[in-house]
């Protein structure tokens, strides 16, 4: 297994992480036994970086991950998140809470669900608009001092928020969406992270599965899959038809290189820098093993130039999130 260092505080993780969100909800039907087997297969193969959050499945995902790693805690770099409060299963009812009291409460709840004594990487899932980020990170820093958390992270924060947070306590990681069809972070975010010595974790590095080439129409998605709804506009109607051109370009280059579109897409993210780690989500061990093949896929300057032509900044049609 290849490893990468995130931040300057000593956090070392496998070069590819496993996003566990879809094991609980959002992307169609789930199977706890299958997901548990996939997590354990990841650990068998040396992938040690697992990503979850308290809001995924309203606690279910943390419980699932906790059970899957039981007896194997020393093999895992465990990342979870707090800050998105879900009083109901309806996403429109979500609210953000970054208050110090909530930080402490959320951490205790996550530790209990995960069945661990400490969290390796603790993210603020989204910066709450009604609490200064300095106050939130100050409370997170207290968790580090208490030994309940080892490293701190932010998710989807702006350059200004990153700087303000980092001034309170070192931020080791910023997690934000990044893939061939979501390259917004190249405008300011990556430069800010590198200036401050903050590592970058790319979520949805396969474009929520779109860049695998397995989604050609809405018929390829289950009715309960959020990608089949306006919540993810890039998968809907004319947007989908436009975005399929990106996938066709990726598929053609992958075929020429003798790899899969997923492997090519992940190799592109990996090539963005040694401080970048993609977390690809899957419920299936076969797809996990396919994704790991990206670690041994070398991209030439010509390959990278071709991908820039296929998927330049802003190529995808549709907002990342809808309603």
Give the helices and strands, then pairings.
Layout: E1 3-6, E2 11-14, E3 17-19, H1 32-44, E4 49-51, H2 60-68, E5 77-82, E6 84-85, E7 95-96, H3 100-114, E8 119-124, H4 133-145, E9 149-155, H5 159-168, E10 173-177, H6 189-196, E11 199-203, H7 237-257, H8 261-270, E12 276-281, H9 285-292, H10 301-310
Parallel strand pairs: 3-4, 3-12, 4-5, 5-8, 8-9, 9-10, 10-11, 11-12
Antiparallel strand pairs: 1-2, 6-7
Biggest beta-sheet profile: 8 strands, parallel, barrel
The N- and C-terminal alpha carbons lie at a distance of 39 Å
Q: Helicity, in percent?
A: 25-40%
* Number of helices in the DSSP assignment: 10
Structural class: alpha/beta
Order of strands, main sheet, comes to 3-4-5-8-9-10-11-12
Low-confidence sequence ranges: none
In what range is the share of β-strand residues?
15-25%
Alpha carbon gyration radius: 19 Å
The best one-word shape is globular
Quaternary state of the chains: single chain
How much is the average pLDDT? 96
The ordered string of helix (H) and strand (E) elements is EEEHEHEEEHEHEHEHEHHEHH
Strand tally is 12
In short:
The protein has 323 residues and is α/β, with parallel strands linked by helices. Helices cover 36% and strands 16% of the residues.
What can you tell me about this protein's structure?
Helix content is 36%, strand content 16%. The chain is an alpha/beta fold. Helix 1 (32-44) crosses helix 2 and helix 1 (32-44) runs parallel beside helix 9 (285-292). The longest helix is centred in the last third of the chain and has 21 residues, at 237-257. The termini are far apart.
């Amino acid at each position: 297994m290849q490893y990468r260092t995130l931040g300057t505080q000593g956090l070392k993780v496998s070069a590819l992480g496993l996003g566990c969100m879809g094991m609980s909800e959002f992307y169609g039907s789930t199977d706890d036994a299958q997901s548990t087997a996939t997590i354990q297969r990841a650990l068998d193969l040396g992938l040690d970086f697992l990503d979850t959050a308290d809001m995924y499945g309203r606690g279910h995902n943390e419980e699932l991950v906790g059970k899957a790693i039981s007896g194997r805690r020393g093999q895992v770099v465990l990342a979870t998140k707090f800050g998105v409060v879900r009083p109901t299963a309806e996403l429109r009812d979500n609210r953000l809470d970054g208050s110090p009291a909530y930080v402490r409460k959320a951490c205790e709840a996550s530790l209990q669900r995960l069945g661990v004594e400490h969290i390796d990487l603790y993210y603020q899932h989204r910066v709450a608009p009604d609490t200064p980020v300095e106050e939130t990170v100050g409370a997170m820093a207290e968790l580090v001092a208490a030994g309940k958390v080892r490293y701190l992270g932010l998710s989807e924060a702006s350059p200004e928020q990153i700087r303000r947070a980092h001034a309170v306590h070192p931020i080791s990681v910023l997690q934000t969406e990044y893939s061939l069809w979501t390259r917004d972070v190249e405008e300011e975010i990556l430069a800010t992270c590198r200036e401050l010595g903050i590592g970058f974790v790319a979520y949805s590095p396969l474009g929520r599965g779109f860049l695998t080439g397995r989604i050609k129409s809405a018929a390829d998605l289950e009715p309960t899959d959020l990608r089949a709804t306006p919540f993810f506009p890039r998968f809907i109607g004319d947007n989908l038809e436009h975005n399929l051109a990106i996938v066709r370009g990726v598929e053609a280059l992958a075929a020429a290189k003798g790899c899969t579109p997923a492997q090519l897409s992940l190799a592109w993210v990996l090539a963005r820098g040694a401080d970048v780690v993609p977390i690809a989500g899957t419920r299936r061990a076969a797809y996990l093993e396919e994704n790991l093949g990206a670690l041994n896929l070398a991209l030439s300057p010509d390959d990278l130039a071709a991908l820039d032509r296929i998927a330049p900044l802003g190529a995808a049609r549709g907002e990342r999130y809808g309603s």
